[in-house]
Design brief:
With about 550 residues, the protein is α/β, with parallel strands linked by helices. About 50% of the residues lie in helices and about 10% in strands. The protein has 24 helices and 17 strands. The strands form 5 sheets. Strands 1, 2, 3, 6, 15, 16 and 17 form a 7-stranded mixed β-sheet that branches. A 4-stranded mixed β-sheet has the order 8-13-7-14. β4 and β5 form a beta hairpin. α1 runs parallel beside α4, α3 runs antiparallel to α4 and α16 crosses α24. The N and C termini lie far apart (about 85 Å).
Length: about 550
């Protein structure tokens, strides 16, 4: 009997390998199919959302990532599609896939999650079920409720235009703008948005409707408004030659001071044309006469009222101040005597290496080193009001909005006063302003324009602003705001624009958020260290600004 032949190890191995290869091929095929499905799902999620995006433009945007620092930049970021695709819809779609996988539901569940991801829709915003004109403002429900009288007055004139004010509470203007962009990405943008100077150029470049056509059409109706508003406020809301907002309110950075601190030091109110040197000597006198925890000068590290006013009065800024061409039609129509106006302020180049910037920073560093002023505090709001109203601060930069804050804090109007900002090479001041912008995406632009015209009318402004919580853009209305509770020289608030006509808005290009971050990060290092640290900090600021301005 023959014994069985031994098995062929080599043949079995080859068979096993062949089987394994077929399995791997099928696995790769299914993985490829799955990846294609997931990719298709992501693309579908980006394209559709609550509102359709153009197929070819989305593909083009995805193939041109907006990363200028890495050498990538989309050549045409029209209508904010780049922001919507890369900053909102793509992350949401990818997050849906990730969440589905994390839940352990496998590929099918991930696909289902991506397809069913709940997005903000028009039905999620109260008032959008109707044909209401939606107005978004930075504030609380109480702030919105305060505008109900404004809505009723508007509908007395326009009963056919229902209005809904939607409060969106942001920690600051940048946070508020980010939330508006989220609504844009979701296809649920409001019709009208309250926009401060910080966001004017961001909205003008990507989101807002130019007002030129409407202003031209209704020029006769608007002539009274422009006659009552300083041209600097109009120029602040122009961008690349077009007007994007009608100003409602503004605040210039003036100098508030304690009258008690001046009297204790044997000093009078500063002269209108006082200088940096006068300012320093006044602080020295205050410090010599004071006791306890008194601080002659207190300031905050922020864009408005921080280092920037000192740069302006030294004839410079941390961004190179330039202007856009255009807007001639508006100036000739409403301000024929203004021959040095432009199509809007332009800040496209870093300027931290300007010797005049260094001089201003060194001046502030010297004040702190001499213990005449505080290190710049972050933010600046309620705490500063409290400290000033209790008499532990001699002077601080602020604007007309402080009148209401100090009054509510219990400070009598004769306990403080206000002066112009001290000058050096110039006495140019800094201001911030606010006004409504009409969204490009709105289907109710004509109704939105009627809202804008009404809120800047004398009746609209009186209803909307009943307290001195900002200076009115209308020259004629400020006496009603400030005379009852304002300091003796409250006229300084609006007179700043007349006396110093080059007074300009805070430097706020479309990349304002990144620019502000770069500034604030380096200010503290510059003014609180040794004099040698100032140059190093400004060198870092120049570098950071270059990176910030390169971002789209």
């Amino acid at each position: 009997m023959n014994a069985p032949s031994p098995a062929n190890p080599s043949g079995k191995l080859q068979q096993a390998l062949a089987v394994q290869r077929r399995r791997e091929s099928r696995r790769l095929l299914w993985m490829g199919i799955l990846l294609l499905v997931l990719l298709g799902t992501v693309l579908a999620d980006i394209f559709t959302g609550p509102s359709l995006l153009p197929f070819r433009e989305v593909i083009d945007i995805l193939m041109h990532p907006p990363f200028p620092a890495l050498g990538f930049a989309h050549p045409d970021a029209a209508d904010g599609l780049v922001t919507i695709v890369w900053d909102f819809r793509l992350p949401v779609a990818l997050m849906a896939i990730v969440v589905g996988a994390a839940l352990g539901l496998g590929a099918v569940a991930a696909l289902g999650t991506a397809l069913s991801w709940r997005r903000l829709t028009g039905l999620d915003i109260e008032g959008r079920r109707s044909d209401a004109l939606t107005i978004a403002l930075n504030g609380t429900a109480q702030d919105a409720a305060a505008d109900e009288g404004l809505i009723r007055a508007f509908q007395d004139v326009h009963p056919d235009i229902p209005v809904r004010i939607t409060p969106i509470q942001g920690t600051d203007w940048s946070d508020f703008f980010a939330k508006i962009l989220t609504l844009v990405a979701a296809g649920t943008a409001p019709d009208v948005v309250m926009v401060a100077t910080e966001g004017t150029q961001l909205f003008a470049e990507r989101l807002a409707q130019p007002l030129d056509e409407y202003v031209r059409r209704d020029r006769d109706e608007l002539r009274e408004f422009f006659a009552d508003v300083h041209p600097s406020l109009i120029e602040a809301f122009m961008y690349q030659g077009s007007l994007f907002q009608l100003p409602l309110s503004f605040n210039a950075a003036n100098m508030f001071f304690s009258r008690q601190a001046l009297e204790t030091a044997g000093l009078d109110r500063p002269a209108d044309d006082w200088t940096w040197d006068d300012f320093r000597e006044l602080l020295r006198a205050m410090r010599s006469a004071a006791t306890g925890t008194f601080r002659p000068f207190f300031w905050t590290n922020r864009m408005w009222g921080g280092i920037v006013p000192w740069l302006y009065t030294n004839g410079t800024s941390f961004l190179k101040p330039e202007r856009f061409a255009g807007g001639d039609w508006l100036w000739q129509e409403f301000y024929p005597d203004e021959h040095d106006r432009s199509g809007g302020h332009r800040w496209e180049q870093p300027n931290a290496d300007d010797p005049a910037v260094l001089e201003a920073f060194e001046f502030m560093q010297e004040l702190i080193a001499e213990d005449l002023g505080s290190s710049p505090a972050s933010g600046g709001g309620n705490e500063l009001v409290s400290r000033f109203s209790t008499g532990v601060i001699g002077m601080t930069p602020s604007g007309g909005y402080w009148v209401n804050g100090l009054s509510e804090a219990g400070m009598a109007k004769d306990q403080y006063d206000v002066a112009y900002f001290p000058g050096h090479r110039t006495q140019q001041h800094q201001f911030g302003a606010s006004g409504y912008a009409i969204m490009k995406s709105s289907e109710r632009k004509d109704a939105a324009w009627e809202w804008l015209k009404f809120v800047v009318s004398p009746r609209g402004m009186r209803i909307a602003q009943t307290k001195p919580d900002s200076s009115s853009a209308r020259r004629s209305y400020n006496a009603e705001l400030y005379a009852p509770t304002g300091p003796e020289h409250w006229g300084v608030f609006y007179d700043t624009l007349d006396r110093f006509p080059t007074t300009a808005p805070i430097p706020a290009p479309p990349q304002e958020a990144a620019v502000e971050t770069a500034l604030l990060k380096n200010v503290l290092n510059a003014v609180t260290g040794s004099r040698e640290n100032v140059r190093t900090a400004l060198s870092n600021l120049q570098r950071d600004l270059e990176l910030a301005l390169a971002r789209e």
